[in-house]
Design a protein that fits this description.
This protein has about 350 residues and is an alpha+beta fold. It is built from 9 helices and 12 strands. The protein folds into 3 domains: about 100 residues; about 110 residues, Immunoglobulin-like; about 100 residues, Cytochrome Bc1 Complex, Chain D, domain 2 (Orthogonal Bundle). The strands form 3 sheets. A 5-stranded mixed β-sheet has the order 3-2-1-5-8. A hairpin with a 6-residue loop joins strand 6 and strand 7. Helix 1 packs antiparallel against helix 2 and helix 5 crosses helix 9. It is elongated. The structure holds dinuclear copper ion. The site of dinuclear copper ion has 9 residues, from loops.
Length: about 350
């Protein structure tokens, strides 16, 4: 090969690689990092991206160079020389990808093993997925159930995941790893949140009509704030009457606001019926207000508001009775005001 050709190939390769690297580095493709595990996941991502950029640069260089260097003259109608296999080349282009893919595989396996290794003093949360809501219960707080996930910062957290119906998948982009919930199985996900803040929980497995609405929030709190919250939940879970539990807190802790409007709670959801108009809906259904609200929470398909679909709202039948009673009272009060 002539020296000039080598220089041209190298030049094209550097330009192509430079453009690809700029696109990879200058555009913020990834969400902010909020867990230790996410840092390792990103390492695998960048390792793979670097390999891809190098291969892209080589292919682009050969391709662009060939288009110009070997183009046929305008009056050249002849066929090119007949070329058959090239054993050396075939071994090279089989061996290099095999090595690269094996390297990515080994790196990923090491990262996954490290991500699964629990730290000291593990905090456990049971996660239940169902069409189409997430709920979280805390064994350290008398199994109190919430619709929003609260976690202490810088602590090893083990999520024990289960599904009541079909396959869902738990994903917080800022935490990095995804994990499926599978009916009949317990799967788990280990995370160590490193940044205080609130993050979207997304169901990332198509699970039915309401899949897109199956979202919640993960709130990472300081140790002190978390302990205080956990203690208050412990107390609420131990409460035996609706009077000792705040209905507003139950509404806030559960995913109600994601789908419903309720002025008193600042909720503006439009997926489900407007809760400010509960007295009107109960009248339409020819049911007394209190039992109408209670049934609609624990068995939403018993009566479906005209204009809405059944099976969108999950039954909240596992709400402890004091929480359910408080929520019903809260909804009666708030809707009468609304
Ligand atoms: Cu649950 Cu998608």
């Amino acid at each position: 090969m002539r020296r000039g050709s080598l220089v041209s190939l190298l030049g094209i390769g550097l330009v192509a690689g430079g453009i690809a690297a700029a696109v990879a580095l200058l555009i913020p493709w990834l969400p902010p990092v909020a867990s230790k595990e996410r840092v390792r996941i990103d390492d695998v991502f960048w390792f793979t991206v670097v390999i891809c950029i190098v291969i892209f640069a080589i292919v682009a260089a050969v391709l662009i160079y060939s288009v110009f260097a070997f183009r046929a003259a305008p009056d050249d109608d002849s066929d090119g020389p007949p070329t058959h296999g090239n054993t050396t080349l075939e071994i090279v282009w089989t061996l290099i990808p095999t090595l690269l893919v094996t390297a990515i595989g080994i790196f990923s396996a090491v990262v996954l093993a490290k991500n699964d290794a629990l730290g000291k003093n593990v905090f456990k949360v049971n996660v239940t997925a169902q069409q189409f809501a997430w709920s979280f219960s805390y064994p350290e707080a008398g199994n109190v159930t919430t619709g929003v996930l609260r976690l202490p910062v810088n602590r090893s957290v083990l999520l024990d995941l289960k599904s009541l119906d079909v396959i869902h998948s738990f994903w917080v982009p800022e935490f990095g790893q995804k994990e499926d919930t599978v009916p009949g199985l317990h799967t788990s996900l280990h995370i160590t949140p490193t940044k205080i803040g609130s993050y979207d929980i997304i169901c990332t497995e198509l699970c039915g009509l309401g899949h897109a609405t199956m979202r919640s929030t993960a709130i990472v709190m300081s140790d002190a704030a978390f302990d205080k919250w956990l203690a208050s939940q412990k107390k609420a879970a131990g409460g035996t009457s609706a009077a000792s539990v705040s209905g507003a807190a139950v509404f806030k802790n559960n995913p109600c606001a994601g789908c419903h409007t309720l002025t008193a709670a600042g909720a503006t959801g439009k997926v489900g019926p407007d809760l400010d108009k509960l007295p009107q809906w109960a009248q339409q259904a020819h049911q007394p207000l209190e039992s109408f609200i209670r049934t609609s929470i624990v068995n939403p398909n018993a009566y479906v508001q005209p204009g809405f679909h059944p099976n969108i709202m999950p039954p909240f039948s596992s709400l402890p009775k004091p929480q359910l009673d408080a929520l019903v009272q809260y909804l009666i009060q708030s809707s009468k005001k609304g």
